[in-house]
Structure formats: structure tokens, C-alpha cells
What does this fold into?
Amino acid sequence: MDVFAVPADRHQGWYVRLMAPNTKGPAFAWLDPSRLYCNSQALGDCVTDLLAPFHSDTIDLVAGIDAMGFILGSSVATRLGKGFLAIRKAGHLCVATQNQNYTDYSGREKTMEVREDVLKPGLRVLLVDQWIETGGTMTAAIRLVERLGGTVVGVAAVAIENTDGGKWIKENYKFSHCIPEELQSQIDGKYLESFSDFNK
It folds into this structure.
């Protein structure tokens, strides 16, 4: 599918077809969701779909996870008219921070950090990342927000895979994602049928 094409019938999740398959091998993620951000209508519809479950919720702040969560999180924050908090990889912030260790989707041990001068008790935060695979990164972000007294209103991502970590998030927090139910098994199987379009 042409990256700038917009179908006449924009059904929920139509932009999933824009996501590109991995062409570089096992050292990389199995797909690149960020291709959909190049299409302004796709990005806008993705944000609309992510926010749909939260229309009746009070959200004070949007927090996005380094790095791809910054793109989607900033878009969500702008749509809501709210501020954006960057949850960074450790070692990048020059102010006082709280840190949290975690294991990412590739099995690597990492540390994330968040500044201490924004989150406070009672602040209602929507957490955004591009993708939730094992859930380790998002769970660490949840712990950071809650440790500083914030309330996690919900979790939003383009996709949440049905791994143990993904299921735990779905069971314990309000969530949203952009994947139509009929495509969830393809997400969990790490292969989209639409990848065949890239071979034409």
C-alpha cells in the first residue's frame, strides 16, 4: 500500500496495512509500525482510535516512553490539549530523576528514568508507547509513575501482544490499541498478511 494513500472506507485499523515488515533480520523488531506516521490521516485516525476508550476519563498528563512512544504520545497529548512527559532511557536527563530497571522485548537489561519535578500524588497520567510486546518496558513505566504518586489512567499503544506481560497489563489497567480483533492473531504470530503487499 502506498504510504500516502487513504482509502475511501477508513474502517478501524485500516492503517495497519501501512506497517512495514522487517527486512534486516532477527537483530531487529519483526515490523516497523512507524511507517504509518508518515501518513497524516493514518496518524490522526490512530490517535482517535487510541483515545476512544478514554473519552469519559480525566487525563492531566500524557507520558510517552523513549523513543518511539514520544511520537505517538506527543500526538495524543496535542489532541487532548495536555502536556507531555518524556520517560527516558537512563543517563539522558540532567535533573533529579527516579530510575527503574527492566528487561525489554529483546531480553536486554535496561534502565529508564523520569524527572522528579512533574509527577505528584493524584496526577492522572495516560501512558503511551508504540508497541507492547513482552510488557517489560510499559510495566517499568507504570511503576515509575505510581512510585511518584501518579495515577495511571490507562495504557495506549498501537498494539498489545498477548504475551504474559501484555495480558497482565490488559487485566490490571484500562487500555487501548489499534488492532482490529480479527488481526490480533496475526500480531501475536508476528506476521501480518498485508506484508505480502510489500513483495509486489
Summary: Helices lie at 40-51, 68-80, 136-147, 164-172, 184-188.
